[in-house]
């Protein structure tokens, strides 16, 4: 792990600069609810939950208070990463761009939301929302402009088909695969993520695949025969599904090699619509032992329709029913789901599957039904539900440091923060500046004596968060 030039460790004798030790607030509640995923997706679209550092901190604290334990936060959208990316800078000359934000509000959204989430003990999954999607149909972004040959096409040569209003990178092309895998691995190396998720865009819309590159590969594998004119020809659909599956396996293996304890998550369209329309055969991936969790988007407007579809998703999970987590939509295009309907949907996931549920999206949790969910989870009486895929206490509370003012020879523009004896484990140092908790650098922990961390004077508060990137693999 690279060391930040902004962090300086100085061993100090307690007699010289004594002060009371900060106590890590790691106390567990008197009770703990049954393990289940209680999650929500967080996006920059159609809400303000992560629109500023202050809102981010407020939202994470409120989600934890309501009873959630996991957040899925967007970081790849409309052709841009929402964190500074060397891969994207070298590819298109734009290292990051937050969806819809003006230049003065561009910020490292992953670092900001990750620190805010971990301070609240939330499991953080980096949500690479767009997957193989390069752009919305009306967005002529840099990626689309610079590499039009990477895009897959409809039978009539269009970049946008009737199935959905997006431009798709060709999942078969090595360049597309390298880009998607590259930005994910970069984020895994750069940040202390608990997991990563690809949405229902690790797929191939069946109306597409008629670009020259795909046609040539298909011909090569079919003795010169071109793909069928009918985009829904079963063999043609399965051929594309096999190519997507090939990438899914590569994606999983690469990530687990990089970080064995990383949660690798997929949020596919529901089975079997996903295969027939998106060439995504995700039950096959489950049978292959890939990914830790699957969140099919069972976005049904009524409980009756949800109750009909949900058991089919659990059945598609085969011998891994608890790894199938229900994606439940609160905020639908037709209107918001009533509490009565939402409650019944959550209830059935606890009877069938029992792995948990995830709300689309955080606006529904924070604005539509916050009080109802607060009462339903009843954390005060039942305790927080631990994440079923991670050890208890995986994200302990931060260690709050005290500022040391009585320095004999202080340096101008610097602040000093006392660290008392800490467990021998890696930490990352975070500092509060203008409402945002920024990562300053690493701290090794396990120091025999008191130490001082030296930071820029701009930080109003400094804390230590456990860094799990170098943890030994554990049994799930």
Q: What is this structure's SSE topology?
A:
Blueprint: E1 8-11, E2 37-42, H1 53-66, E3 70-74, E4 76-77, E5 80-81, H2 86-92, H3 109-119, E6 123-128, E7 133-136, H4 142-146, E8 166-168, H5 174-190, E9 195-198, H6 212-221, H7 234-258, E10 263-266, H8 273-278, H9 282-287, E11 293-294, H10 303-316, E12 326-329, E13 331-332, E14 335-336, H11 339-351, E15 356-360, H12 362-368, H13 370-377, H14 379-382, E16 399-400, E17 402-403, E18 414-419, E19 427-433, E20 436-443, E21 451-456, E22 461-466
Parallel strand pairs: 2-3, 2-15, 3-6, 6-9, 9-10, 10-11, 12-15
Antiparallel strand pairs: 1-21, 4-5, 7-8, 13-14, 16-22, 17-18, 18-21, 19-20, 19-22
Helix pairs in contact: 1-3, 5-7, 10-11
Share of residues in strands? 15-25%
Structural class category: alpha/beta
Query: Any idea what the radius of gyration is?
Result: 24 Å
Q: What is the end-to-end distance?
A: 25 Å
Discrete helix count:
14
Main sheet: strands, sense, barrel: 8 strands, parallel
Uncertain regions spanning at least 5 consecutive residues: 1-27
Number of DSSP E strands: 22
Mean pLDDT: 92
Enumerate the strands of the largest sheet in spatial order, edge to edge or round the barrel. 11-10-9-6-3-2-15-12
Helix content: 25-40%
Q: Overall 3D geometry? A: globular
Question: Can you characterise this structure?
Answer:
The two termini are 25 Å apart. The chain has helices spanning 53-66, 86-92, 109-119, 142-146, 174-190, 212-221, 234-258, 273-278, 282-287, 303-316, 339-351, 362-368, 370-377, 379-382, and strands at residues 8-11, 37-42, 70-74, 76-77, 80-81, 123-128, 133-136, 166-168, 195-198, 263-266, 293-294, 326-329, 331-332, 335-336, 356-360, 399-400, 402-403, 414-419, 427-433, 436-443, 451-456, 461-466. The strands form six sheets. It has an eight-stranded parallel beta sheet. A four-stranded antiparallel beta sheet has the order 1-21-18-17, with no helix packed on it. Strands 16-22-19-20 form a four-stranded antiparallel beta sheet. The protein is globular. With 476 residues, it is an alpha/beta fold. Residues 1-27 have low confidence and may be disordered. It contains 14 helices and 22 strands.
């Amino acid at each position: 792990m690279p060391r930040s030039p902004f962090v300086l460790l100085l061993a100090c004798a307690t007699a010289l600069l004594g002060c009371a030790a900060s106590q890590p607030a790691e106390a567990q509640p008197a009770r703990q609810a049954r393990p289940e995923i209680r999650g929500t997706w967080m996006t920059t679209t159609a809400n303000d939950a992560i629109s500023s550092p202050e809102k981010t901190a407020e939202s994470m604290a409120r989600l934890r208070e309501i009873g959630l334990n996991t957040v899925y936060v967007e970081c790849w959208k409309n052709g841009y990463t929402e964190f500074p990316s060397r891969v994207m800078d070298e590819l298109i000359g734009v290292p990051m761009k937050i969806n819809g934000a003006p230049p003065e509000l561009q910020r490292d959204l992953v670092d900001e939301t990750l620190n805010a989430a971990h301070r609240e003990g939330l499991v953080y999954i980096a949500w690479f929302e767009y997957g193989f999607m390069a752009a919305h149909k009306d967005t002529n972004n840099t990626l689309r402009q610079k590499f039009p040959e990477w895009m897959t096409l409809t039978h009539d040569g269009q970049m946008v088909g009737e199935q959905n209003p997006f431009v798709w990178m060709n999942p078969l092309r090595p360049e597309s695969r390298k880009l998607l895998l590259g930005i994910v691995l970069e984020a895994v190396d750069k940040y202390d993520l608990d997991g990563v998720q690809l949405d229902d865009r690790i797929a191939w819309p069946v109306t597409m695949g008629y670009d020259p590159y795909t046609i040539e590969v298909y011909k090569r594998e079919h003795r010169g025969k071109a793909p069928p004119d009918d985009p829904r020809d079963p063999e043609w659909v399965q051929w594309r599904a096999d190519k997507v599956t090939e990438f899914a396996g590569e994606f999983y293996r690469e990530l687990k090699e990089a970080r064995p304890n990383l949660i690798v998550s997929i949020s596919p369209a529901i089975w079997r619509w996903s295969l027939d329309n998106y060439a995504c055969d995700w039950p096959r991936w489950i049978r292959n032992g890939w990914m830790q969790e699957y969140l099919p988007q069972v976005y049904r407007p009524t409980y009756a329709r949800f109750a009909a579809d949900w058991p089919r998703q659990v059945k598609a999970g085969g011998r891994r029913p608890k790894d199938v987590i229900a994606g439940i939509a609160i905020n639908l295009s037709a209107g918001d789901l009533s509490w009565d309907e939402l409650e019944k949907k959550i209830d059935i996931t606890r009877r069938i599957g029992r792995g948990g549920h995830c709300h689309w999206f955080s606006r529904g949790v924070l604005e539509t039904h916050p009080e109802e969910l607060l009462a339903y989870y009843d954390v005060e009486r039942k305790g927080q539900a631990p994440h079923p895929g991670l050890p208890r206490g995986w994200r302990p509370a931060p260690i709050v440091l005290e500022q040391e003012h009585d320095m004999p020879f202080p340096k101008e523009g610097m602040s000093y923060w006392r660290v008392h004896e800490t467990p021998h484990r890696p930490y990352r140092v975070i500092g509060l500046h203008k409402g945002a908790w920024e990562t300053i650098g690493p701290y090794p922990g396990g120091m025999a004596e008191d130490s001082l961390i030296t930071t820029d004077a701009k930080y109003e508060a400094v804390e230590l968060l456990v860094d799990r990137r170098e943890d030994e693999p554990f049994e799930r």
